[in-house]
Design a protein that fits this description.
Helices cover 28% and strands 29% of the residues. By secondary structure, it is an alpha+beta fold. It has a single domain (12-174), classed as Peptide deformylase (Peptide Deformylase, Alpha-Beta Complex). A hairpin with a 5-residue loop joins strand 6 and strand 7 (125-131). Bound molecules: ligand GNR and nickel (II) ion.
Length: 175
């Protein structure tokens, strides 16, 4: 396993549409392992492959392991080629953050419940229902696979402000 570098705004790769995984090979499982290690190290509750610059439709998640609770037990999940099957009309608001947009948090409204389909690490098709933070997180991660970031749901004013801040920061870092 290895910790990989997480790319951040304004890296244009974050806008790529990731390609489906066509077979769950040992390389795919190795990539998922690296993503989980990178996610726990960050720490984050979810990670899309594109965040480590790999444009594949692969997501890792762990909503159980909390860095403020040493007794919590890790519950690593891997979702391959995830697709939303249905979503509730009911909406819910969560304060979202993103490892590719460090230290920026804003409230985002999304469907409160979703049903989604994915391949597991054995290449088996599965379906699951998600609600609460799980629903928010799976939608946030599937958005990454389509080059969409949570700041895209904010007002143009807020989004422009964030983009500008990170562009300026990258320019300074490059000097
Ligand atoms: O670690 C993360 N926390 C989070 C909080 C609220 C809504 C979504 C997320 S996902 C984020 C990790 C990340 O950037 N995944 O793409
Ligand atoms: Ni994110």
């Amino acid at each position: 396993m290895a910790i990989r570098e997480i790319i951040i705004l304004p890296d244009k790769q974050l806008r790529l549409v990731s390609k489906p995984v066509d077979r769950v090979t040992s390389e795919v499982r190795k990539l998922a392992d690296d993503m989980l290690e990178t996610m726990y190290d960050a720490p984050g509750i979810g990670l899309a492959a594109i965040q480590i610059a790999v444009p594949l439709r692969l997501i890792t998640m762990d909503l159980a392991k909390r860095d403020d609770d040493e007794t919590s037990v890790a519950r690593p999940r891997v979702f391959i080629n995830p697709e939303i099957v249905s979503k509730s009309d009911e909406l819910s608001v969560y304060e979202e953050g993103c490892l590719s947009i460090p230290e920026y948090y804003e409230a985002v409204e999304r469907p409160a419940k979703v049903r989604f389909r994915f391949l597991d690490l054995d290449g088996k098709t599965r379906e699951e229902d998600a609600e609460g933070l799980f629903a928010t997180c799976i939608q946030h991660e599937i958005d990454h696979l389509n080059g969409v970031l949570f700041v895209d749901y904010l007002s143009k004013l807020k989004r422009d402000r964030v983009m500008k801040k990170f562009t300026k920061f990258a320019r300074r870092a490059a000097e």
